[in-house]
Design a protein that fits this description.
- The chain has one domain: RutC-like (60s Ribosomal Protein L30, Chain: A, 2-Layer Sandwich).
- It is built from 2 helices and 6 strands, in the order βββαβαββ.
- It is α+β, with helices and mostly antiparallel strands.
- Helix 1 packs parallel to helix 2.
- The chain is 22% helix and 29% strand.
- A 6-stranded mixed β-sheet has the order 1-2-3-6-4-5, with helices on one face.
- The longest helix is centred in the middle third of the chain and has 18 residues.
Length: 126
């Protein structure tokens, strides 16, 4: 059985998808961009943008009764690999080393709303 997870603390979906789905204890979180749910504005600059994306992901995880320690897989899309080091530092600041998820980071030519970063996650209820 699938349960839709939605919170006003993260931006609403900008297309025909949900913020997240919980199925059999596994949470599938749609890609989050640096859209601030309170202001409706995009955060610019890779450091601020990554913080906003991680806050959006955290809000969705919390709505599902989870946290970053539950994340088993992340996928990160960057418009430029030149942003990798800054993104990586901010991303790591939200996680604990003993529970780092599996991950890939790829450079893409374009993202929704022409943002610089998008991150999706898969988490598991333990």
């Amino acid at each position: 059985m699938k349960k839709l997870i939605s919170t006003a603390a993260a931006p609403a979906a900008i297309g025909p998808y949900s913020q997240a789905n919980l199925a059999n204890g596994i949470l599938y979180i749609s890609g989050q961009i640096p859209l601030n749910a309170e202001t409706g504005k995009l955060e610019e600059g890779i450091e601020k943008a990554t913080h906003q994306v991680m806050k959006n992901l955290q809000a969705i995880l919390e709505e599902a009764g989870m946290g970053f320690k539950n994340v088993v897989k992340s996928t990160i899309f960057l418009k430029s690999m030149d942003d990798f080091a800054i993104m990586n530092t901010v991303y790591a600041s939200y996680l604990e080393e003993e529970s780092f998820p599996a991950r890939e980071t790829v450079q893409v030519s374009c993202l929704p709303k022409n943002v610089d970063i998008e991150i999706s996650m898969i988490a598991h209820q333990f």
